[in-house]
Amino acid sequence: MNITIFGATGKVGQALVREALNRGHDITAVVRDASRLKIEHERLHVVEGNLLDPATVERNAKGREAVISAYGPKPGEEEELLEAARSLIEGVRRSGTKRLLVVGGAGSLLTDDGTRLMDTPSFPEEWFPLAAAHADAYVIYSRSDLDWTYLSPAAALEDGPRSGNFRIGIDRLITDELGSSRITIADLAAALVDELEDPYFVRSRFTVGY
Fold first, then answer.
1. In this model, does residue 75 exceed pLDDT 90?
2. Residues whose CB is less than 8 angstroms from the CB of residue 59 and which lie 6 or more positions away in sequence, other chains included
3. Strands, DSSP E only, in 36-179?
């Protein structure tokens, strides 16, 4: 496939680039600073651009089979997450591409008692603004007319190997037998590229964990 990835310089974005390249896809990585992407490959094309500009999104999405966003704002810039969601939807729609896959947040996933993770007493207070912004962005994507997919990770995103062995859910936080909710970044990337190649969660959300 020919796909475009926004947010390719972050940990999740770089893992997605590597996973997609390893599977033979052609990647256009749209980044603010090309020098920050330390991956070179004949099927990787790096261009500088601003995700918050719908015209940039349109230009780099046109003619692609799918667009992926792994964008995550810095603390204090949570409002940019909502601006990015609107820009992505507008730009992808203008481009004529229908498929949009987004790596979002875990905060709006439901725990066993039906409470959102972000509303539980143990959720770190300093993370709440970002979790709330991700939750609001999810609503924006869910109301779009694109063939969107929103991936919420487990509560803890970790460095570690790609196992290709994880569980998949929809709106509930996945926990292991010890009550821990975790996934490696490499396996998160594998799960999203699985969905890219074999769509199942079109116009819906899914989550992964061990």
1. no
2. 49, 95
3. 44-48, 66-69, 99-103, 147-152, 156-158, 167-169
